Protein backbone atom coordinates (compact mmCIF):
# COMPACT_ATOMS: atom_id res chain seq x y z
CA UNK A 1 0.00 0.00 0.00
CA UNK A 2 1.26 3.49 -0.81
CA UNK A 3 2.12 5.91 1.99
CA UNK A 4 -0.18 8.82 2.85
CA UNK A 5 1.09 11.70 0.73
CA UNK A 6 2.14 9.31 -2.00
CA UNK A 7 -1.37 9.06 -3.41
CA UNK A 8 -3.05 6.58 -1.04
CA UNK A 9 -6.39 5.86 -2.70
CA UNK A 10 -8.24 6.11 0.65
CA UNK A 11 -7.41 9.82 0.81
CA UNK A 12 -8.47 12.28 -1.83
CA UNK A 13 -8.98 16.00 -2.15
CA UNK A 14 -10.16 15.74 -5.72
CA UNK A 15 -12.69 18.46 -6.51
CA UNK A 16 -11.59 20.54 -3.50
CA UNK A 17 -10.41 24.13 -3.69
CA UNK A 18 -7.89 25.37 -1.14
CA UNK A 19 -6.37 28.73 -0.27
CA UNK A 20 -3.06 28.32 1.56
CA UNK A 21 -1.39 31.55 2.64
CA UNK A 22 2.39 31.81 2.54
CA UNK A 23 2.95 28.79 0.31
CA UNK A 24 6.37 29.69 -1.07
CA UNK A 25 8.45 28.41 1.85
CA UNK A 26 8.46 26.14 4.87
CA UNK A 27 5.26 24.61 6.20
CA UNK A 28 3.04 26.44 3.68
CA UNK A 29 5.06 25.10 0.76
CA UNK A 30 4.69 21.55 2.10
CA UNK A 31 0.92 22.01 2.59
CA UNK A 32 0.46 23.28 -0.97
CA UNK A 33 2.32 20.26 -2.34
CA UNK A 34 0.45 17.77 -0.16
CA UNK A 35 -2.96 19.21 -1.05
CA UNK A 36 -2.09 19.26 -4.74
CA UNK A 37 -0.75 15.70 -4.57
CA UNK A 38 -4.12 14.63 -3.17
CA UNK A 39 -5.90 16.29 -6.09
CA UNK A 40 -6.96 19.68 -4.71
CA UNK A 41 -6.76 22.84 -6.76
CA UNK A 42 -4.68 25.23 -4.68
CA UNK A 43 -4.23 29.00 -4.57
CA UNK A 44 -1.42 30.58 -2.61
CA UNK A 45 0.20 33.95 -1.98
CA UNK A 46 3.33 35.59 -0.65
CA UNK A 47 5.04 39.00 -0.90
CA UNK A 48 7.90 37.97 -3.19
CA UNK A 49 6.95 37.77 -6.90
CA UNK A 50 10.18 36.05 -7.98
CA UNK A 51 9.96 33.33 -5.35
CA UNK A 52 6.26 32.84 -6.07
CA UNK A 53 6.89 32.51 -9.83
CA UNK A 54 9.64 29.94 -9.20
CA UNK A 55 7.29 27.89 -7.00
CA UNK A 56 4.42 28.08 -9.50
CA UNK A 57 6.77 26.88 -12.25
CA UNK A 58 8.03 24.05 -10.05
CA UNK A 59 4.47 22.94 -9.26
CA UNK A 60 3.45 23.14 -12.90
CA UNK A 61 6.35 20.84 -13.80
CA UNK A 62 5.13 18.39 -11.15
CA UNK A 63 1.65 18.42 -12.69
CA UNK A 64 0.04 20.19 -9.71
CA UNK A 65 -2.83 22.64 -10.15
CA UNK A 66 -1.56 25.61 -8.20
CA UNK A 67 -2.11 29.31 -8.89
CA UNK A 68 -1.00 32.30 -6.88
CA UNK A 69 -0.48 36.01 -6.62
CA UNK A 70 1.53 38.50 -4.65
CA UNK A 71 -0.21 39.83 -1.56
CA UNK A 72 1.04 41.49 1.58
CA UNK A 73 -1.41 39.97 4.00
CA UNK A 74 -0.66 42.56 6.65
CA UNK A 75 -2.47 45.14 4.49
CA UNK A 76 -6.25 44.94 4.84
CA UNK A 77 -7.05 46.15 1.33
CA UNK A 78 -4.70 43.52 -0.13
CA UNK A 79 -6.56 40.83 1.82
CA UNK A 80 -9.84 42.08 0.33
CA UNK A 81 -8.31 41.90 -3.14
CA UNK A 82 -6.87 38.43 -2.53
CA UNK A 83 -10.23 36.94 -1.57
CA UNK A 84 -11.87 38.64 -4.55
CA UNK A 85 -9.25 37.12 -6.88
CA UNK A 86 -9.40 33.69 -5.24
CA UNK A 87 -13.17 33.44 -5.28
CA UNK A 88 -13.27 34.41 -8.93
CA UNK A 89 -10.64 31.74 -9.61
CA UNK A 90 -12.60 29.15 -7.61
CA UNK A 91 -15.99 30.18 -9.01
CA UNK A 92 -17.45 31.41 -5.73
CA UNK A 93 -16.56 28.45 -3.50
CA UNK A 94 -13.66 27.70 -1.19
CA UNK A 95 -13.46 24.32 0.55
CA UNK A 96 -10.29 24.86 2.58
CA UNK A 97 -8.61 27.94 4.02
CA UNK A 98 -5.20 27.42 5.62
CA UNK A 99 -4.01 30.45 7.58
CA UNK A 100 -0.34 29.61 7.45
CA UNK A 101 1.61 32.83 6.82
CA UNK A 102 3.15 34.08 10.01
CA UNK A 103 6.04 35.94 11.49
CA UNK A 104 7.93 36.17 14.75
CA UNK A 105 10.58 38.04 16.69
CA UNK A 106 12.38 36.59 19.65
CA UNK A 107 13.12 39.01 22.48
CA UNK A 108 12.78 39.34 26.22
CA UNK A 109 9.38 40.87 27.06
CA UNK A 110 11.14 43.94 28.41
CA UNK A 111 12.78 44.52 25.00
CA UNK A 112 9.71 44.54 22.74
CA UNK A 113 8.91 47.97 21.31
CA UNK A 114 5.69 49.56 20.11
CA UNK A 115 6.84 48.91 16.51
CA UNK A 116 7.27 45.17 17.16
CA UNK A 117 3.69 44.69 18.28
CA UNK A 118 1.77 45.35 15.09
CA UNK A 119 3.70 43.10 12.62
CA UNK A 120 3.42 40.08 14.91
CA UNK A 121 -0.17 40.49 16.07
CA UNK A 122 -1.22 41.83 12.67
CA UNK A 123 0.29 39.09 10.51
CA UNK A 124 -0.43 36.19 12.82
CA UNK A 125 -3.79 37.05 14.30
CA UNK A 126 -5.57 39.97 12.65
CA UNK A 127 -4.80 38.72 9.14
CA UNK A 128 -6.00 35.19 9.86
CA UNK A 129 -9.16 36.37 11.58
CA UNK A 130 -10.01 38.77 8.77
CA UNK A 131 -9.38 36.12 6.10
CA UNK A 132 -11.81 33.83 7.94
CA UNK A 133 -14.42 36.59 7.88
CA UNK A 134 -13.85 37.28 4.19
CA UNK A 135 -13.81 33.60 3.24
CA UNK A 136 -16.83 32.62 5.37
CA UNK A 137 -19.55 33.06 2.68
CA UNK A 138 -17.46 31.10 0.17
CA UNK A 139 -16.61 28.31 2.62
CA UNK A 140 -20.32 28.11 3.44
CA UNK A 141 -21.21 28.04 -0.26
CA UNK A 142 -18.95 25.02 -0.75
CA UNK A 143 -21.24 23.00 1.55
CA UNK A 144 -18.18 21.43 3.16
CA UNK A 145 -15.75 24.04 4.46
CA UNK A 146 -12.63 23.72 6.55
CA UNK A 147 -10.38 26.31 8.15
CA UNK A 148 -6.96 25.38 9.51
CA UNK A 149 -4.91 27.81 11.56
CA UNK A 150 -1.20 27.04 11.63
CA UNK A 151 -0.58 27.92 15.23
CA UNK A 152 2.24 27.00 17.58
CA UNK A 153 2.99 25.14 20.78
CA UNK A 154 4.14 28.60 21.84
CA UNK A 155 0.45 29.46 22.03
CA UNK A 156 -0.09 26.62 24.51
CA UNK A 157 2.94 26.65 26.76
CA UNK A 158 5.50 29.27 27.78
CA UNK A 159 8.58 29.20 25.57
CA UNK A 160 11.47 31.60 26.17
CA UNK A 161 11.72 35.03 24.49
CA UNK A 162 8.51 34.61 22.50
CA UNK A 163 5.83 36.38 24.53
CA UNK A 164 4.32 38.44 21.67
CA UNK A 165 4.37 35.48 19.27
CA UNK A 166 2.78 33.38 22.04
CA UNK A 167 0.04 35.99 22.50
CA UNK A 168 -0.75 35.96 18.77
CA UNK A 169 -0.91 32.16 18.61
CA UNK A 170 -2.73 31.78 21.94
CA UNK A 171 -5.38 34.15 20.61
CA UNK A 172 -5.52 32.11 17.42
CA UNK A 173 -6.10 28.93 19.44
CA UNK A 174 -8.88 30.61 21.40
CA UNK A 175 -10.63 31.92 18.29
CA UNK A 176 -10.41 28.49 16.65
CA UNK A 177 -12.89 27.22 19.24
CA UNK A 178 -15.20 30.22 18.88
CA UNK A 179 -15.38 29.97 15.10
CA UNK A 180 -15.77 26.18 15.26
CA UNK A 181 -18.86 26.67 17.44
CA UNK A 182 -20.26 29.63 15.46
CA UNK A 183 -19.79 28.10 12.04
CA UNK A 184 -20.61 24.43 12.66
CA UNK A 185 -24.16 25.28 11.52
CA UNK A 186 -22.66 26.35 8.18
CA UNK A 187 -20.84 23.02 7.84
CA UNK A 188 -17.46 24.69 8.32
CA UNK A 189 -14.93 22.87 10.50
CA UNK A 190 -12.31 25.01 12.24
CA UNK A 191 -9.09 23.56 13.64
CA UNK A 192 -5.64 24.67 14.69
CA UNK A 193 -2.37 22.82 14.27
CA UNK A 194 0.04 23.73 17.03
CA UNK A 195 3.34 23.33 15.21
CA UNK A 196 6.55 22.52 17.06
CA UNK A 197 9.80 24.26 16.02
N1 LIG B 1 8.68 26.55 11.36
C1 LIG B 1 8.42 26.34 12.65
O1 LIG B 1 9.22 25.77 13.38
C2 LIG B 1 7.10 26.77 13.24
C3 LIG B 1 6.79 26.45 14.58
C4 LIG B 1 5.58 26.86 15.10
C5 LIG B 1 4.66 27.55 14.33
N2 LIG B 1 5.00 27.85 13.04
C6 LIG B 1 4.02 28.61 12.25
O2 LIG B 1 3.89 27.99 10.99
C7 LIG B 1 3.64 28.98 9.99
C8 LIG B 1 4.66 28.84 8.87
O3 LIG B 1 5.95 28.94 9.42
P1 LIG B 1 7.26 28.69 8.53
O4 LIG B 1 8.40 28.53 9.48
O5 LIG B 1 6.99 27.66 7.51
O6 LIG B 1 7.42 30.15 7.85
P2 LIG B 1 8.42 30.64 6.70
O7 LIG B 1 9.32 29.55 6.27
O8 LIG B 1 9.02 31.91 7.21
O9 LIG B 1 7.41 30.98 5.51
C9 LIG B 1 6.42 31.93 5.72
C10 LIG B 1 5.60 32.05 4.46
O10 LIG B 1 4.61 33.07 4.68
C11 LIG B 1 4.81 34.14 3.74
N3 LIG B 1 4.48 35.39 4.42
C12 LIG B 1 4.99 35.89 5.57
N4 LIG B 1 4.47 37.08 5.84
C13 LIG B 1 3.59 37.35 4.84
C14 LIG B 1 2.74 38.45 4.55
N5 LIG B 1 2.69 39.54 5.34
N6 LIG B 1 2.00 38.41 3.44
C15 LIG B 1 2.04 37.33 2.61
N7 LIG B 1 2.83 36.26 2.84
C16 LIG B 1 3.60 36.28 3.93
C17 LIG B 1 6.29 34.03 3.33
O11 LIG B 1 6.55 34.60 2.08
P3 LIG B 1 7.14 36.12 1.94
O12 LIG B 1 8.05 36.36 3.11
O13 LIG B 1 7.82 36.15 0.61
O14 LIG B 1 5.93 37.01 1.98
C18 LIG B 1 6.41 32.51 3.27
O15 LIG B 1 5.84 32.00 2.09
C19 LIG B 1 3.70 30.33 10.70
O16 LIG B 1 2.41 30.78 11.02
C20 LIG B 1 4.49 30.03 11.97
O17 LIG B 1 4.18 30.89 13.02
C21 LIG B 1 6.18 27.49 12.48
From TrEMBL:
Gene3D superfamilies: NAD(P)-binding Rossmann-like Domain. It comes from the Eukaryota. GO terms for molecular function: oxidoreductase activity. Keywords: Membrane, NADP, Oxidoreductase, Transmembrane, Transmembrane helix. The chain crosses the membrane at residues 147-167. InterPro entries: NAD(P)-bd_dom_sf, SDR_fam, TR. It holds the Pfam family adh_short. Belongs to the short-chain dehydrogenases/reductases (SDR) family. This is Tropinone reductase I. It comes from Fraxinus pennsylvanica.
